[in-house]
Amino acid sequence: MADRAARFASLITRRRVSAVVALVPLLLAVAAIVLLGSGERAAKPDDTLPAGRDSTEAVALQSELPDGDDASVAVVLFTTGPADDGTRLDRQQLADLGRLAERVGAVPAGQDGPLLPSDDGTAALATVPVQAGSATENADLVDELRTQLRDGVPDGVQVQVTGPAAVQADLAAVFDGADLRLLGATAGVVALLLIITYRSPVLWLVPLTVVGIADRLAGVLATQSLAALDVAFDESTTGILSVLVFGAGTDYALLLISRYRDELRHLESRHEAMAHALRRTAEAVLCSAVTVVLGVLTLLLSLVPTTRGLGLASAIGVTVAAAFVLVVLPAALVCFPRGIFWPRVPKVGQAALVESNTFWHRVGDRVAARPVAFLGGTVVLLAALSVGLFRVDTGLDQADQFLDEPEAIAASTRLADSYPAGLSDPLQVLTRADGQRVLAAVRGVDGVESATISQQDAGITQVDAVLDAASGSPEAEAAVGAVRDAVAGFDDTHVTGSEAQAIDEADGAARDRLVVIPLLVGLVLIALVLLLRSLVAPVLLVVTTVATFAASLGASWWLFTGLLGFEAIDNTAPLLAFVFLVALGVDYNIFLVTRAREEAAEHGPRRGMLRSLSATGGVITSAGVLLAAVFAVLGVLPLVVLAQLGTIVCIGVLLDTLVVRTVLVPALALVLGDRFWWPRRVGPSEPSVG
């Protein structure tokens, strides 16, 4: 294996070959990006719902109704202002609003026409069917509806649109132009941090260009693959993918370039220096990439189709990033003279990082002087931050999913002031049984304000039930359970709607965590055992990584509830954060311990770990800060789940790189000595500390 790696490194960095190796893949990638473009797939109603759950089965039945796949409703709310203002709609206004509602296609609300006035007289609503074949068409139709209503509403009346169609339209608006905003913000953050890291006005352009093209190619290959396999994905999939490719790719680039700079201090030929650097770093990058790929592929076991799509897309993205860093980047770098590092040009004879009196060399000396104290201090810190973990609540209400309140959510809140809370988004019961008997059963449930048959065709009946409890409340959850109990005796009868889906999503998320998290931990442990050929070190490294996640989630909980005012964390955020933190945290484990193993062969386990910290501490810190900043960029999208995911990963990566990987792990290695690598011997025997 070592001989093959050496030959490969020498081949792609050879003087007359490197330019071809650098340019040809880049040109092919650009051609693929331009010619293929992003893959497209028509969204399905159950893309974001957990498979096998009651609400998902109901959606499947609903799709068999005429226009069931693309039918939704918009609820138009006319008001005179806040409900407590008391100003009532007069007869002329109601007449004008009735005619306006008919013009926009509102369905009859009763004998009096399309309007349903509120009991307090301050509001009236109308229901407008929206039939759209895609999320884009839905958004366009809702925008057109809003424009028509605002142009036609009489003086003194305010109009807002809510309901399922409007919520989906406002959600789509979150991602309008999101790819460009996210790409621009990510590239800007990466560029700034690379300039700071390399302290060169030129060098950063090479890795940024290579990783940037890898990101675009990964997006094309991932979406085309998902579309070909009919695997669900959405805008958030491509956004997270871009962040992951930039983060992982730049981390790998930092490790390679740091080792290349060191080799240039020993070798005159930059081609030989790069061959040495690539041979030394290829194992770490490959092992890291394989572990990350296996880690994100565990998401394929999720019940939610879009989560499975994210797992597959992420695996493709990390593979592309690693390939570009191991093949294209070294070949591209050796095409430039040493001056590309200006003004800090490495010269033959200069001390390497491992021998320099760097900041991390001094940190290593302090840890070596009192390893037990540093070990105890970091454990206490992580334990204190993890306390919030026991207070975490998951599951966001629909109104809490946006950082900036859109019109659909504001209208839903105002509607609840004058109407039963569930009127804008009723519970939906789908059945193949006798519709009238199901209707009677639903009407008899406590907590159901009213129930009507809204559709009946092809042997399927849809009953819409309005709950009198506020959305997301325990009373609403209890009412959903009561309705399900009431219809449980009917064949092929299922309950859906936002309230029912929220319950099933929470249940599906809990199941996913129970399945994916232990599997991911096991895979990471096996990967580290195979890499290090030891048992103690892999177990300790996995434990520290899991402890980092616990601390980051606990700290994030206090941040979300105390500073930002959230009442819960989105159902999917803990699982995704765990997968990304553990999978990417392995990078820093591998960067540190593979160098420690290399140094220990000559200097012993204790000195080997300290020399590894001196050599890789700066790289790990730079990579961690960069990765944390890249995930924090997810906050540019005003969607709470992405902001929460970015925050948890950001805090976790900073803890991992500044505390765990650079203080806790070296302290553990120093305390245990030879036992850290048991049963393997990595170098001259040394006594442990303590």
UniProtKB/TrEMBL annotation:
<feature type="transmembrane region" description="Helical">
    <location>
        <begin position="539"/>
        <end position="560"/>
    </location>
</feature>
<dbReference type="Pfam" id="PF03176">
    <property type="entry name" value="MMPL"/>
</dbReference>
<keyword id="KW-0812">Transmembrane</keyword>
<dbReference type="InterPro" id="IPR000731">
    <property type="entry name" value="SSD"/>
</dbReference>
<feature type="transmembrane region" description="Helical">
    <location>
        <begin position="205"/>
        <end position="227"/>
    </location>
</feature>
<feature type="domain" description="SSD">
    <location>
        <begin position="229"/>
        <end position="335"/>
    </location>
</feature>
<feature type="transmembrane region" description="Helical">
    <location>
        <begin position="514"/>
        <end position="532"/>
    </location>
</feature>
<feature type="transmembrane region" description="Helical">
    <location>
        <begin position="572"/>
        <end position="592"/>
    </location>
</feature>
<feature type="transmembrane region" description="Helical">
    <location>
        <begin position="239"/>
        <end position="260"/>
    </location>
</feature>
<feature type="transmembrane region" description="Helical">
    <location>
        <begin position="281"/>
        <end position="304"/>
    </location>
</feature>
<feature type="domain" description="SSD">
    <location>
        <begin position="542"/>
        <end position="670"/>
    </location>
</feature>
<feature type="transmembrane region" description="Helical">
    <location>
        <begin position="613"/>
        <end position="639"/>
    </location>
</feature>
<dbReference type="InterPro" id="IPR004869">
    <property type="entry name" value="MMPL_dom"/>
</dbReference>
<protein>
    <submittedName>
        <fullName>MMPL family transporter</fullName>
    </submittedName>
</protein>
<keyword id="KW-0472">Membrane</keyword>
<dbReference type="InterPro" id="IPR050545">
    <property type="entry name" value="Mycobact_MmpL"/>
</dbReference>
<feature type="transmembrane region" description="Helical">
    <location>
        <begin position="180"/>
        <end position="198"/>
    </location>
</feature>
<comment type="similarity">
    <text>Belongs to the resistance-nodulation-cell division (RND) (TC 2.A.6) family. MmpL subfamily.</text>
</comment>
<feature type="transmembrane region" description="Helical">
    <location>
        <begin position="645"/>
        <end position="672"/>
    </location>
</feature>
<feature type="transmembrane region" description="Helical">
    <location>
        <begin position="372"/>
        <end position="392"/>
    </location>
</feature>
<keyword id="KW-1003">Cell membrane</keyword>
<keyword id="KW-1133">Transmembrane helix</keyword>
<feature type="transmembrane region" description="Helical">
    <location>
        <begin position="310"/>
        <end position="336"/>
    </location>
</feature>
